[in-house]
Amino acid sequence: MVGSALAPGAARGTAGPTSRFARHLHLAEVIRFREGQTLFDEGQRTPRGLYWLESGRVKFSLLTSSGVERVVGFAGAGAVFGEESVLEEVERPVMCQATSDGVAYFFDWAAIRSVLRGDPDLALELLSAMARKLVFSVRLVEEMTFLGVKDRVARTLARLATGGTDLGMATPARAVEVTHQELASMVGASRVMVSHALAELREEGVIEQHRRKLVVRDLASLRLQAGLGHARATPVGDP
C-alpha cells in the first residue's frame, strides 16, 4: 500500500493508536538504527508484526520498472508503520530506510496478540488506519493521472504540512523538512520542474525556503492551488 509524506504519524505512518503501543514496549524488540540503514527492503518477506517509531525519521520508497527510486512517504517519531504484515507474512510493498538516527520497536504477532487481548479497541483503530491508507492510495493514483506538477507539489506540501493523509484536514501548517529531489520523487516529476513549481509558490508568498526546510506561510492558498477547497491559513514561525 502506497502512502506519502510523512510528518509524525502521517501517510505511511499511523498516528491514532501509537500512544497505546508505547505502553507495551516491554513486549517488543528494540531496534536502534543509524542514518542510511535499511529496516526492510521492497519485496522482502518479514515476520508478521509492525513497527512503532520512538525517535528518528524514516522514508518509504520503491523502484520503478526503469530502476528509478520513487519516494512515497516519510514517518517521524510516534508513528506506527509496516502494519501490512500484521495478519500474514507478505512481501513488503516498499523499502523503509532511515533518514536519521533513531529507535524503533518491532511488535511481532505474539506481542500484538498480547496487546490486543488487553486493549481490543486497538484492533478497530488499526483497521481504520489501514482503510485510510487505502483511500489515500487511490488519491495518489488520481493525482498522478489528473494533476499537473505544480498542483501535485502543492497537494504534497499541504499533506506534509498538516501531518495527515486526510486531505480534508485543516490542521495548523508548519515547516516541512524535505529536499527538492525527495519532493520530485514523491510527485513523479523532474527536480527541475519541481524547483520551478516551488519558485512560483515562493513568489506568490505561499511558502518560504529555509535551507532544507520549506515553511508554509499560507495554507489556504496552498490548498486552493492543490484543488482542496477553502481552509483557514495558519502562519508559521521561522524554524
Describe this structure in words.
With 239 residues, the chain is α+β, with helices and mostly antiparallel strands. The protein has two domains: 21-143, Jelly Rolls, CATH 2.60.120; 149-226, Winged helix-like DNA-binding domain superfamily/Winged helix DNA-binding domain (Arc Repressor Mutant, subunit A). Helix content is 35%, strand content 23%. The protein has seven helices and eleven strands. It has helices at 18-22, 109-118, 121-146, 149-162, 180-187, 191-203, 219-225; strands at 29-33, 38-40, 49-55, 57-63, 69-76, 80-81, 95-98, 102-108, 175-177, 207-210, 213-216. The strands form three sheets. A four-stranded antiparallel beta sheet has the order 1-8-3-6. It has a four-stranded antiparallel beta sheet with strand order 2-7-4-5. Helix 4 (149-162) packs across helix 5 (180-187). The longest helix is centred in the middle third of the chain and has 26 residues, at 121-146. It starts with 17 loop residues before the first helix and ends in a 14-residue tail after the last helix.
